[in-house]
Design brief:
There is one protein chain. By secondary structure, the protein is α/β, with parallel strands linked by helices. The protein has a single domain, classed as Rossmann fold (3-Layer(aba) Sandwich). The protein has seven helices and nine strands; from the N terminus they run E-H-E-H-E-E-H-H-E-E-E-H-E-H-E-H. A six-stranded parallel sheet has the order 1-9-8-5-2-3. Helix 2 runs parallel beside helix 3. The relative contact order is 0.18. The model has no long low-confidence stretch (mean pLDDT about 95). Bound molecules: 6-phosphogluconic acid. One of its GO terms (biological process) is carbohydrate metabolic process. This is 6-phosphogluconolactonase. Pfam families: Glucosamine_iso.
């Protein structure tokens, strides 16, 4: 685990962009493709600003979703819709770069379909191994759409699961399970703001068993990219 604290949001965002750029370069050199998983929420806002600044061959990128809301792409709640409106037409990314969820079906069907899509992009792999997953963390310690005390935390067979009772609206989503998350080469949390300081301490110092605590790739690295505010309670401990 690597905990990297930025002086402020812009500093940690730049450090995260540098990390993504380096992993993309290594991945393309080795595999001739860079397979990245995106999350929604504030990390999406940061990425839509940061991704276009990355010096890379975007023709080798494929962008997946660590989780996605089961809503129409033109809904304000669609994570893909947010990335599309910010990046397509304004960057070198096109719709074809994104692996989107099936529209107009139940969450269960969308999860099954996304699993089939993953099989096409990770041929022959017993579990998809992403080069990098970009993760947010909610104030309750959830990540992807894996929420505290939810049965999906214990899912060990499915790669992509459906949730219809998400405590964070909208209620219907699909999500990577820990089976896929913890098979990734790199998991990168981007967590900013003083409202996250308490949960960051609960996870990184108190070691409470919360969903984000369970992100620990079996043969990969987990990075916690924190601004000073989100790391504030951790730093108080170090000063004591
Ligand atoms: O689609 C989603 O809702 C996200 O994937 C979710 O996991 C998000 O990353 C966290 O809720 C953190 O969101 P914030 O950074 O906005 O608090």
């Amino acid at each position: 685990m690597k905990i990297i604290v930025g002086k402020n949001k812009d500093d940690i965002f730049q450090k995260t962009i540098n990390l993504i750029e380096n992993v993309a370069k290594e991945s393309i050199a080795k595999d001739n493709i860079f397979k990245i998983g995106l999350s929604g929420g504030s990390v999406a806002t940061f990425l839509t600003i940061g991704i276009p600044k990355i010096k890379t061959d975007f023709t080798k990128w494929k962008l997946f979703f660590c989780d996605e809301r089961n809503v129409p792409e033109d809904s304000n709640d669609s994570t893909y819709g947010f990335y599309k409106s910010a990046l397509i037409g304004t960057s070198k990314l096109t719709e074809d770069h994104f692996i989107r969820i099936k529209q107009g079906v139940s969450a269960k069907e969308a999860a099954a379909d996304y699993t089939e899509q993953l099989k096409r992009y990770f041929p022959g792999e017993t579990v998809p191994k992403f080069h990098l997953l970009l993760l947010g963390m909610g104030p309750d310690g959830h990540t992807c759409s894996l929420f505290p005390n939810h049965p999906l935390l214990e899912e060990t067979d499915e790669w992509i699961a459906a949730i219809t009772d998400s405590p964070k609206p909208p209620s219907e989503r699909i999500t990577m399970t820990f089976k896929v998350v913890n098979n990734s080469k790199n998991c990168v949390f981007v967590v900013c703001g003083k409202e996250k300081a308490g949960i960051v301490k609960r996870i990184l110092h108190n070691k409470e068993d919360l969903p984000a605590s369970r992100v620990n790739p079996t043969s990969g690295e987990v990075y916690w990219m924190l601004d000073e505010e989100a790391a504030g309670d951790l730093q108080k401990i170090n000063e004591d």
